[in-house]
Specification:
About 60% of the residues lie in helices and about 5% in strands. With about 550 residues, the protein is mainly alpha-helical. The longest helix is centred in the middle third of the chain and has 31 residues.
Amino acid sequence: MNSPTPAIVTQAAVRRLPRWALWLFCFAYVIPGFVGRGPWKDDDITAFGVMHAMAQGDSDWWTPTLGHLAIDSSGWLAYWLGAVAIQALPWVDPVVASRIPFAGLLGLTLACTWYTTYHLARLPAAQPVAFAFGGEAKPVDYARALADASLLALIACLGLAQLSHEVTHDVVRLAAWSVLMLAVARQVADPDSARWNTVLFVLGMAGLLLAGHGKATVPLVLGWIAVSLQASRSHPARWTSAGLWLACALGLSAWAWHIGAMPTRGVHWPQDGADWQRWLKLQLWFSWPAWPMAAWTLWRWRRHLGSPHVALPLWGVALGLWGSLVLDDKDRVLLPMLSSVAVLAAFALPTLRRSASALIDWFALLFFSACALVIWVVWVAMHTGVPAKPAANVAKLAPGFSAELGWLAFAAALLATLAWIALVAWRTGAHRPALWKSLVLPAAGTTLCWLLLMTLWMPLLDFARSYAPMAGQIAQRIPTQACVYGLGLSPAQTAALRYHARLNMQALTAQDMSCDHLITTDAGQQHMGEQLSLPDWAYTTRVYRLGERRESLLLYRRLRP
């Protein structure tokens, strides 16, 4: 006997979020961060450097290099997308062109999350309790309301903002994960569309493998196939699709393993209390505020954990948490999981009490209003020197930075702030109930703060998080397109010198000694004598990044007779 669902929802509570508002949320979240900034250190500039090298023919498309420096690639798809975009749009700045496919991937992630929730919410096991005299929510309207809520929950996740706006493999993994989850959700809800479901499945899995997510792909796929079969063991279409999916999974995994697209990530268990504390802190903020609602879903739907609308996203969340526990780059490992967290969080809304919804609203109102106020105060301090303390902190953290007023950015920030004030006024007013209302302020607050950072603080962040100022100092000392050896440089530093300083960076080898300039680090300087005749080289200067002693580059010049 099936347990009754904990969802009690009236038809009045499932009115749709206006489509223009939903599109505005997506546009205001996706576009800032992809426009108006330079590549940031470290992964962003490294990935762009490889794409730019591929587009110019300076790197092999199967063996990525930067100035003949081999790149430890975890996949090719991100590099290919950026390089193709740069080649296809030669009249567009290469940085902007490389970001166009990734903006599309982020939009695809949002769309797949919406449709995944929509299909799962239409399942009989996810429907609200039927009333004795009618009036319960209709299945389609209920599904649309929860789908709107899941999209808002994804946008509200704090960990999504920066990593999803880079041109790295992580954005590809996020989108491919979402496509794969949608394929399984469609198969569970509509097994008669097996052909299109299989196409989505293959595309999602291929994307994960080509983005270097092979270690998690196989258990993810096997778990989701099991969910699909469990949904209806008597439906022959599901068994047929499951066999086809399993064959595709094994074939693609074997191919990727053979050609090297499944790298071995570093496995590091937490060693002590400090490691566990850092891991717990990451979990607390990265998927906030969606994870408390996801946890509430698990509690309220605890008698339905085997149902697809709970089991499907729960398996994705479990794998994400496990990966972040034992693998390096814990925040990047968690990123694809956010779409699963958002789907799970949406199913908490039909079970929330009014007091819980009010608590979410008040917390979002106070937290994001305070964050927006801080951003505005620091911006005013950058331009006027008042208040003095924030201005002094900016001067200390970014020595040499000179603030310039961008009227277009200021207008966008002001308009967003006014929209936030209007939204708060609307939310605190008396309106008809709607399932998605509890997530409007968290999603809008996250979007507001991200937009303010990408407009008001963009020049400061570009200065502080970019290698451009450092490369500019080097460009004043070494001619453009000069042949320069790099010794001990990171891929990010090499990419920055190639793009920002326009230097022809070459790996130092005993067979080629034609360059007249050399750039190295303190660690690389200790090994110069092993590859060079030191009397032939003269030390020129040391260049610091932001005046920091922690990161600097040493310049040498060859002494010609």
